[in-house]
Give the backbone structure.
Amino acid sequence: APLPARGGKSHVPDMTERDNGTILLAMLHIDADPATYPAISSLAGRLGQLSAGDLSRLHSAGGWLVRQISACGLRNVTLGEDTLVLVLRGIKEVDAYRAGTGCFLYFPAGQACTLTNIPDEQGMYLALALSFSDDILARSATLLPPSSPRPGSVPLLLTLLNTFLDLTLLHDDAALARMQMEQILYALRGAGLPLFRNGRDTAADVRA
C-alpha cells in the first residue's frame, strides 16, 4: 500500500522488494514529534539558501540538493551507488509509494525505479541526497549496531547531517565530510533502517 505523505508514529522502516527478492528501497518515517519537525524545517531553510559554490562543495563530498518548482517524473532511474534521500519539502513518489516531509529513503545501487518529485503547497520540492561508495559502506559495516530501533536515533541523524554540512560548506573539508558519512550510516542502522549493498543487508556481511 502507498505510504502516507508524512512521517508515521514509528521509526520502523517500510521495505519494498522486487519480485526477485532484491530490495528497491527502504523508507524510514520520522516520528510526528513536535521537537523533530522544526529541525527538518531548519535544515530545509539552510539548504534552500546555498550558493553555486556551496552546491559544488556539497557535490565533491558525495552530496547533492534536489530543488524543483514543478512536478517532475523520471522513468527507469538507476543509481550507481547506495543513496540516502531526505525529503525536506514536498513529496517524492517511488513507483507506487509516497514519501513526504521528514521521510528518509535509502536506495540500494543498481535498482531501476520511477521517481516523481511533487512540490508542496508553497510550490517547492526540496531534498538532500548523499551517495555512499562501496569503501564507505565496507568501513561503516563494522560499526553497524543491531537493527532494532533506538530512541533518539533520528534526532541524532539530523545532527550528523548538519555536521556533515558544516564540514562541507564551512570548512570545505570533503575528506572529513566523507568520514562523517560513516557515522550517518551508523545512525541509520540505529534508527532501524537496514542498509544494503547489491540488495543485501551490509550487516550480514559482518555477521557471516
User: Anything to note?
Assistant: The mean pLDDT is 76.
